[in-house]
Write a structure and sequence with these properties.
It is built from 11 helices and 6 strands. It is of the alpha/beta class.
């Protein structure tokens, strides 16, 4: 397929989202409230959902007064259980990916659960929304006639007990949808290289 046609199709597809983004901007509180209760409904039968009786929560104030603020240490045991492959703790499905932090508040790193839904509905959705707004403001853009440069983290992904952990940007690159992979450079293999000197040479070579 000729590149200009790809650019036109991709631009048209992404611009269709703009009307919905406008509604988000017009009704931010309603949108946030709807999302909160979608998450509560989805997680109501998990361990944490039953502990705090998500099914009984009626509004935001009720949620705020029912679900406490906790530290990482408070949930560390449950996260380790999740990393071992247990499901239905925080989320109905087993969590495969964990973003490893740099350990800012203690000597040890933290492992942040990353569900497949959060990848699609949060990280990748945000990327598509930013592209949508850019294309809406630049109707003659030729963004998809070439490739976009991506520079993610250099940490490799590691497998343990059937789960995968590493830098969040590495997780995002490793799971990018085909259309984003097609329009990005360098390749995933080069993007995930740990040695920056070799990575820069490989980027130039591509």
């Amino acid at each position: 397929m000729p590149i200009p046609i790809v650019n036109s199709i991709a631009s048209w597809f992404l611009k269709k989202r703009f009307h919905q983004i406008e509604l988000f901007l017009k009704y931010p509180n309603e949108v946030q409230n709807e999302l909160l209760f979608h998450l509560l409904k989805t997680a109501k039968d998990t361990e944490i959902g039953k502990t705090y009786d998500f099914a009984s929560i009626k509004n935001y104030e009720h949620y705020r007064n029912t679900v406490p603020i906790v530290s990482y240490e408070d949930v560390k045991t449950n996260i380790e259980r999740s990393r071992s492959g247990e499901s239905n703790i925080f989320w109905p499905n087993a969590i495969r990916w964990f973003a490893k932090s740099s350990g800012t508040t203690s000597a040890k790193s933290k492992f942040i659960p990353v569900s497949s839904e959060s990848l699609e509905d949060c990280h990748y959705a945000a990327s598509k929304d930013l592209l949508c707004m850019y294309l809406n403001n630049n109707e003659d853009s030729q963004l998809f006639t070439g490739k976009s440069l991506r520079l993610g983290g250099s940490k490799e992904l590691y497998k343990e007990n059937g789960t995968v952990f590493g830098d969040l940007s590495a997780i995002l690159i490793d799971n990018m949808p085909f259309w984003a992979e097609f329009s990005s450079t360098p390749s995933s293999k080069v993007s995930l290289m740990s040695d920056w000197e070799h990575k820069m040479d490989a980027i130039v070579a591509e």
